[in-house]
Amino acid sequence: MRPTPDDTVVVGRIGRPHGVRGEATIEVRTDDPDDRFVPGAVIRTVPADRGPLTVTGARWHREVLLLAFEGYDSREEIETLRDTLLEVPLADLPALEDPDDYYDHQLIGLAARLPDGTHLGEVTAVRHEGADLLVVARADGGELLVPFVSAIVPTVDLAGGVVVVDPPEGLLDL
Length: 174
Hints:
By secondary structure, the protein is mostly beta strands. The protein has helices at about 35, 75-80, 105, and strands spanning about 10-20, 25-30, 40-45, 55-60, 65-70, 85-90, 110-115, 120-130, 130-140, 145, 155, 160-165. Helices cover about 5% and strands about 45% of the residues. A 6-stranded antiparallel barrel has the order 1-2-5-4-3-6. β11 and β12 form a beta hairpin. The protein starts with 7 loop residues before the first strand and ends in a 10-residue tail after the last strand.
């Protein structure tokens, strides 16, 4: 299913409270957290009845982003937000400068095909685990992890809804 103009993308998830003054740890799911989570930013939530939330404070504690939200001043209040997803409209995302860069949501739902046109399956997720990996639900069942590098994925056709996967020997057997 291709996104529609009203779709949103998840940019973070609220984790456990930090300290006693109403800060939450954030599992960051955006490349630009310092621009996305600025004081005054209003962020949609899933579930929707927990928001929208207005950021009142943002700081890094070691490698963890901590956010404070308007109306949530204690550890107990922040606990009620645990596991809330933070999302923004796709229209609010900046345009990518490099034509070979893609947002994850642009790749999800694309058909994966071999260079000869054989249907492999559909991209269902993108993982960022040291290297970027396309998760392909195979047409014949199971799941395939495809390194998202130009040598293995030489073509991404967003308009056509297709990625071409040119796997090295043995990748399809994993």
